[in-house]
Design brief:
five-stranded antiparallel sheet; single chain; about 130 residues; alpha+beta
Length: about 130
Amino acid sequence: MSSERPINPRFDEDVHFNLVSPGPPRYRNHTDKPVRYFTVVDKQGGAVLGYVWAGDEDDAAMWEPREAAGPRAFSEGGIWHARLEEAKGRGLLPSQALAELLAQPEGNKGRALPDSLTDAPSATAVEALAKGE
């Protein structure tokens, strides 16, 4: 009697792995490095909906909704986020994407506030601003 076990037919063939696409190119969503950001306000009432920030050092950019603006701020974020993804897909640096968004300031329910581009020490500072801290 042989001590060898018969090969299970399921394991007899070579193993194949299917590579899964990582999805569309995206900027990183956080950085501890300095960023630039601008304010997005509601087209109707002028209330602050959120902020779009970007930093080239970590290839990061993101929409940060203002908590006090509620669901309207979160829904507005979709258009700004999509525009950032599209810019990343074209190979733009985050600062270039930010400049492009400012040049075409209209969002869905909001618009970029003219002359609101400013600096922050990090994305955390912009997040704190959005939370009202």
